[in-house]
Amino acid sequence: MARRKYQQEIRAVRRSNALAGIYSAKKATYGYIKGTDKKRTPVIDEEVAPIVRRIFEMYASGISPKNIADILNAEGIASPGKYAYEKLGHKGRPNEMRIWGEVSIRHMLNNIMYIGHLPMLQGTTVSYKNHHRQAKDKSEWVITYNNHEPIISQELWDKVQERQRHMAQGRKTKTGYVHPLSGFLVCADCGSKMKMCAHFSKAKNEYSFYFNCGNHLRYGKTLCFSHYIPAKVLEEIVLDNIKEMAQRIVLDEEAIREEFLRHNAELAETAIKTAKKELQAKRKRTEELSRLMQIAYEDRLKGKMPEDICLGFIQKYSEEQKRLEGEIEELESKLTETENTMQSADEFIRNIKKYLEAPKLTREMCYELIDRIVIGGLPKVTGKEREIDIVYKVDIASVLRYKFRK
Predict the structure, then answer these.
(1) pLDDT tens-digit profile of 273-330?
(2) At 86, which CATH number?
(3) pTM above 0.85, yes or no
(4) Cys-Cys with 152: which of 114, 277, 354, 363 at CB 3.0–4.6 Å?
(5) Is 280 inside any structural domain?
């Protein structure tokens, strides 16, 4: 019992420190050192902070965590474990591999420390007897926002998170090559992902790449027909379209921006009204559920309702309330996203103007601008002109819609 009480006291102290914003980690997160103030506020370690920024920039440009780790190891850059051992005197775990790995890169890319927030109490032990560590749900963390100087800008952080959420993770070839458009292409007729294939030419002694419908390649004509298209042809189409859009935006940026916002406002108006109406109804219902739970509790105290029935009602109301709160949060997020259209337009226009003179299509370019590309069938199969529809992340294509027909 004494041991359990001691463990509870330790946890209470740790929680109190976390709520007070006191940094209590044994060693600082890679890229920071512990400050000398009372709260031990993290201070940027200028020796390795550029490496942290570089990791984020490499990932945002389309390089995979595995390849980032390989690059850093090849350049002889000390891993966080090795750096902590050699420079800071931390012994580390027995038999610890002090090299960069995919897991450590992914962990860094999701660590909010790098944008100035301090997350604490992210894990706990099973019990006072079992010291095995287990992760807590993010909702249970104690986070002190805007606690210290960030290493990563919010813009770069958002790019990295967007890439992680995006459908186009892309697949690499046996040689480690990931095509700029890999993962972005969708079959117009069956909706499956387009798969990249390679053909080796003995005469040229080189590989040429092409895309085709994934279902067709797996199951033949049973599910879909061929949507073959050479990768180089598609690269030219997409790059030309991006440069054409950039050119038209540069020539009349303000008019295009205003037209985009006007068009989007018309579409958003109905969506906002519907969302607000739905939000109002859900909020009203959550308030009503709180009132019903209170009534059930009071009736139980007065003896008007059996305990088991009371608990059943409260559990039912509580579950519904929790579900509604999740739906409300999702609706509020969508509403904010719709209302931030102007910012999205400005960012998209700024991004696309960068590529006015782009010599070739890159994966970073695709991540910044493109949501997906829908590939239609060949004329000899469909009997009509082929359509390739480039769907951009911001629907400025409502003003500058591009259809390629062949």
Answers:
(1) 677 777 778 778 777 877 777 787 777 777 777 777 767 777 777 777 777 777 777 7
(2) 3.90.1750.20
(3) no
(4) 114
(5) yes
